[in-house]
Write a structure and sequence with these properties.
The protein is an alpha+beta fold. The chain has two domains: 76 residues, no CATH class; 159 residues, no CATH class. It contains twelve helices and five strands.
Length: 259
Amino acid sequence: MRAMEQAGVAYVKSHHAAALMDRIGRSHRSVEFKHMNISAVLAELGMDTIRGYRPAPNYQQAIFPAIDRYLMVHPEAWDQTPAPAPFLATAGVAEAPLVFVEPPPLLHRDKPPRPAGLERLIRKFDPVERDHRNRKLGREGEAFVVDFEKARLAREGRKDLANNVRWVADLEGDGHGYDILSFTPAGEQRLIEVKTTCGGQTTPFFLSRNELRVSEERKDEYRLYRVFDFARKPRLFELPPPLNESVVLETEVWRAGFG
């Protein structure tokens, strides 16, 4: 069903459920709940879930090796980046900011630990590493935000500022600690770092030391835009500094030297 959704092929969920019930002899409620379990694991892996199957995390341990086996045989299911739908063509310049901006997810510092099987699965199929190494995804996400910012400023009556939005990472390369130079409607600079995923709203991401430092040094101007569900229905939310009030920052990589 997920592959059919990604390919834009219509299907009827009840037909799939009925075929599975005939095959395994389980009730409709049981089959539906198992699909919701699968959605919950897919969300943890930063993958888009099946429409209509709300993630339910009351896992049974057998689900983790089953998904592991499937992804080993079908790596494209985890590591693909379908082209996103062009949002300006469908939403229109005037409506774009209202359609795509959402509030950020709540921070849960006391979230209970994941089951060991799920933790192993996430380490093996790490969504943070996958998104980080996918340069095409990163560039498309940045291009999306450039268009989004121009549309936002135009909608707010500042076409003059929209014309001055600069894709800094494309023009000058990485290293600035942000990707895009934009503006507020009042003309103040806005330094935007873009993090893009095809996964859901709470998919983790990498943040470099330089990006964090710039967010601290220029906190009034800096914003992090998290673009998510990029392959299906691109949306975003905004995180202002200090970033550690919005996300849990953990050391992932050590820089090793000799003095």
